[in-house]
Design a protein that fits this description.
This protein is α/β, with parallel strands linked by helices. 38% of the residues lie in helices and 19% in strands. It contains 3 helices and 5 strands.
């Protein structure tokens, strides 16, 4: 009986050590009122175009930025226009994690609206 208990204990340890207990964060997306290819409202709002390249480069108006520089730029732009919309245009090869990280940086900078194009 002892060898069977040892095997069960070893299996228990294996699965405990091999498991990940990370808490996953969900990205809330609300697409109920979204319209593809048309303006949502009649008023024109200022927008900032942000490009993500396949090599994880962030491009704002032709200038490459680090995530910290991006946050500073967005904060300064929001001081001038609090209703600024940030539009992210990414290359097809960009990894999803890069897009989500960029959105996190924009939200932490205080961007009220972020759109993916």
């Amino acid at each position: 009986m002892t060898p069977l208990i040892d095997v069960v204990f070893i299996l228990l340890l294996f699965f405990m050590l091999a498991s990940h207990f990370d808490q996953w964060r969900a990205l809330a997306l609300d697409a109920r009122g979204a319209k593809v290819g048309a303006a949502v409202s009649g008023e024109a709002r200022a927008a900032m175009l942000l490009r993500l390249h396949a090599d994880a480069r962030i491009d704002l108006s032709g200038e490459s930025l680090t995530p910290a520089q991006l946050e500073q730029r967005v904060e300064r732009a929001l001081e001038r226009d609090p209703e600024l919309v940030v539009v992210i245009q990414s290359a097809p090869e960009v990894e999803l994690q890069t897009i989500v990280s960029t959105i996190d940086h924009l939200v932490s900078a205080g961007a009220p609206e972020v759109r993916l194009q």
